[in-house]
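A reminder from the course coordinator: this example appears on the midterm review sheet, so study it carefully.

Given structure:
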């Protein structure tokens, strides 16, 4: 079995000039009049919901240096800094376009900005941070995609990532199946961060292991194959994330792991109106369509919070 490497770095560095078509949950919830806010129990932005959830698990009095990787338009950090101005954040992003957007929205705060591919960052550099945030970006990192006939050239990136995959298989007892796409970039990054002993780590992404709770089964359908699924987007492809492999790595590094759908911290106001909207096979309005997609995303995206043992 050969593999090809799915990579998005060139796209993010050279071609990305809008996030509009890739509507992240954070961006969907940011405008105060967003229809997505109307279906939540608390009508607030994503960063506010996440901060309020994290502060139940993390003592923010112990958090100063915070790294956000791939912060997109910067909304999440804007919310965090508004709620907690004592944070000293670094925003690292591969995209020069998005980094400029972040500088603009965060201009009233004291923030460090770094343009870099996160996989090129020295592992030691992570140890400077108390908390690392990775929201909706692990799917952008390289993935090894099975490909029947291709034999990878020992010089190319796929070959070195393949070696890395056999290392993960042995070291963490990860049972990659023959036809399985491997989130090799996400595994590599999380291992680097855990090795650096960062005390608190948060990540979220499309999951290939997402489940719909019983009460929602009549209303939404989420297909999760259990192995990373391709998502085709403008100019690049991403892959959903196999969270159980990330969990194994974090646990081997003695992190306590909490994992679930992002709906855990974005709870729905599950009323008759919402049920009626979700039941529509063909939505009548753009707003109904947006809400259907949003509710789907609340359960298709998983989060994982990792807290170093002893904290
Ligand atoms: C889908 S966007 C998510 C943006 C934001 N976190 C949100 O939730 O709205 C992915 C982000 O990750 C960044 N990114 C992708 N690959 C990266 C890499 N290799 N290193 C650093 N940042 C990366 C993108 O430029 C972008 O900011």
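Designed residues:
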């Amino acid at each position: 079995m050969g593999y090809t490497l799915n990579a998005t770095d060139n796209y993010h560095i050279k071609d990305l000039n809008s996030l509009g078509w890739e509507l992240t949950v954070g961006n969907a919830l940011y405008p105060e009049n967003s229809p997505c806010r109307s279906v939540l129990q608390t009508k607030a932005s994503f960063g506010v919901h996440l901060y309020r959830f994290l502060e139940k698990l993390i003592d923010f009095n112990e958090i100063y240096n915070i790294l956000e990787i791939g912060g997109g338009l910067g909304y999440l950090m804007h919310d965090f800094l508004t709620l907690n101005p004592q944070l000293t954040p670094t925003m690292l992003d591969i995209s020069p376009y998005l980094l400029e957007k972040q500088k603009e929205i965060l201009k009233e705060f004291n923030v460090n900005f770094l343009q870099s591919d996160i996989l090129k960052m020295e592992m030691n550099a992570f140890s400077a941070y108390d908390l690392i945030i990775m929201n909706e970006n692990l799917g952008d990192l390289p993935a090894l995609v099975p490909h029947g006939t291709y034999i990878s050239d020992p010089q190319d990136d796929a070959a070195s990532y393949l070696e890395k995959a056999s290392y993960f298989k042995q070291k963490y007892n990860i049972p990659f199946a023959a036809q399985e796409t491997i989130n090799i970039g996400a595994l590599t990054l999380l291992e680097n961060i855990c090795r650096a002993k960062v005390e608190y780590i948060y990540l979220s992404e499309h999951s290939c292991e997402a489940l719909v709770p019983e009460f929602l089964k009549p209303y939404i359908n989420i297909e999760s194959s259990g192995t990373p699924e391709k998502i085709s987007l403008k100019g690049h492809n991403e892959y959903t994330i196999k969270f159980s492999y990330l969990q194994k790595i974090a646990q081997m590094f003695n992190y306590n792991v909490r994992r679930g759908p992002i709906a855990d911290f974005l709870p729905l106001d599950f009323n008759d109106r919402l049920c009626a909207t979700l039941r529509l096979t063909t939505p009548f309005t753009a707003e109904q369509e947006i809400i259907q997609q949003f509710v789907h995303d609340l359960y298709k995206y998983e989060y994982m919070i990792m807290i170093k043992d002893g904290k």
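Residues 11-143+171-308 form a domain with the Rossmann fold fold (CATH 3.40.50.150). The chain has a mean pLDDT of 93.
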